[in-house]
Amino acid sequence: MDKVIYTILMLCSIVPTALPMVHGDGPSTKKNWFKKLPHKNQKATHLHFYLHDIVSGPNPTNIPIAMSNSTAQSPTYFGLIAAIDDPLTLGPSPDSGIVGRAQGLFGSTSLEEIAFHMTFDIVFTNGKYNGSTLTVVGRNPFLREYRELSIVGGSGVFRLARGTAILNTVTYNSTSGDAVVEYNVMVLH
Ligand SMILES: *[C@@H]1O[C@H](CO)[C@@H](O)[C@H](O)[C@H]1NC(C)=O
Ligand SMILES: *[C@@H]1O[C@H](CO)[C@@H](O)[C@H](O)[C@H]1NC(C)=O
Ligand SMILES: *[C@@H]1O[C@H](CO)[C@@H](O)[C@H](O)[C@H]1NC(C)=O
Question: In the 3-class helix/strand/coil scheme, how is 131-171 assigned residue by residue?
Fold first, then answer.
């Protein structure tokens, strides 16, 4: 399974990577890494996975934290704040192999359409990037077919990362609120 994930995650990497795992390094190793940084080639990596946002049932991965008195009357849930810990998988099926998790917060911040301001980390828990993270921030107008969020940083293999994530909803059950969202992440690091 590890090998499959490795292959798929690396599929579109432009420059072959020779970096050892760096997450959990101590300060001296990090200093050394930083000193060599100006002489290193920048890598461009394409990551592809699916996020499972589960609102319904006994084990939701998306839970409301707080809302204003007026949120319940708002057609756009304006003022709702929620936490997510959504599993990320290789394919659209929930049992297609775990890549990692999307952990963070979002707030409903538009009066005109359902749009969330999101701030979360993609935490890799398997394969080549296990232990590394990418930090994602941006506006997510959830009902549109495509959305674009910014990759503003990262850790481990993805230190100093920047890039973009294109989101595309694969399935959305408007009764339960559950959704599967395809992620194409292009990252320089
Ligand atoms: C919100 O609703 C509660 C309960 O009805 C009320 O006590 C409180 O004053 C309301 N807050 C605002 C800001 O309207
Ligand atoms: C990922 O890394 C953690 C912490 O180093 C380790 O405990 C775990 O076994 C690793 N998982 C996989 C699937 O390699
Ligand atoms: C959508 O969610 C409802 C309520 O949980 C469920 O009854 C229904 O089967 C779901 N539809 C699909 C296509 O999964």
Answer: CCEEEEEEEECCCCCEEEEEEEEEEHHHCCCEEEEEEEEEE
